[in-house]
């Protein structure tokens, strides 16, 4: 069989073998370019190797990705754009499938040229569209009319506002509110106020998929509220979703469940009669402040972080509870600011490849039971990669104590004093 990597191969064969050689050449992917009668009745067959062409599609995909990263670096585009761009990964499979299908046909070269041209055109529309949008120029003023569709997809959209309210007059004999908030790439701000309403929200958005819905149901003396949006929009950029939630009636117990995918959240839990909090973050960011006042009813606070960022402040306010934090590849800061009650506070932390900083007042005793894979732990003067137990010098005599149960994979944990 002829070597595909050889540009030109010449073989001299007998006439009787020509048919067989032609079949071999055909199977090998080579091209039979010339035959002629040679001396002594031999057939000289010239075979020209066909080199496999290099696809133009993938280099341009890399170039386009490079431009996006460049725009990210110079703050022309937000980094959150990648959260939308990944949804178009099936296009790569489609292009790859076409190329494999047409690779050994006469249309392969044409497909390479056409595919490269299409990518160039799309990349040009993309880059020029970003330019006109960034310059705040009208598309109609540009010489490129084909940018109109791009601008409609990526340009500013009409903002809408929606307010939702749950009045205390709607329900009776309530003792507890269970609020679940499920958002994707939007922004959330949650706090408390002194109004007569149980729940109030104001949403500002510019795509119908970001319109919030509120599901309400009462079971016994518990009120269940589910506040959520859908995110199947096709807009690339400039989608907006900002949500403000206020809770009142501090005498009612509250279970809080917050789910953020790639969005940003800020929770001010001051004056909230919290009993349980469950926080889940994907690649987004969440900051929760538990305030300066003691929360007597808190039982558990659980937080799960994927590749995002979590910051918990004033954890001393919930010191009678159990804190459980699970971090994948993201980062988390646990700050025990404020005054902590006498007694023990149990904290469980699991870290994959991420990083956690735990800040503790110096007058609080701390005991750390740790299991470490390939990661490391830094606490006081100790820096270790082994399993074991660390006890602070003031642990025995301290009135307030934190017992930390720690499991680290390939990540790192640092315990520092405030």
Automatic annotation (TrEMBL):
Is Transferase one of the keywords? no
Q: Which residues form a coiled coil?
A: none
Which keywords does the record carry? Membrane, Transmembrane, Transmembrane helix
Organism's domain of life?
A: Bacteria
Transmembrane residue ranges: 56-74, 80-102, 109-132
Q: Where is the Cell wall-active antibiotics response LiaF-like C-terminal domain?
A: 321-415
User: Taking every annotated instance into account, which residue ranges of this chain make up the domain LiaF transmembrane?
Assistant: 57-130
Tell me the protein's name: Uncharacterized protein
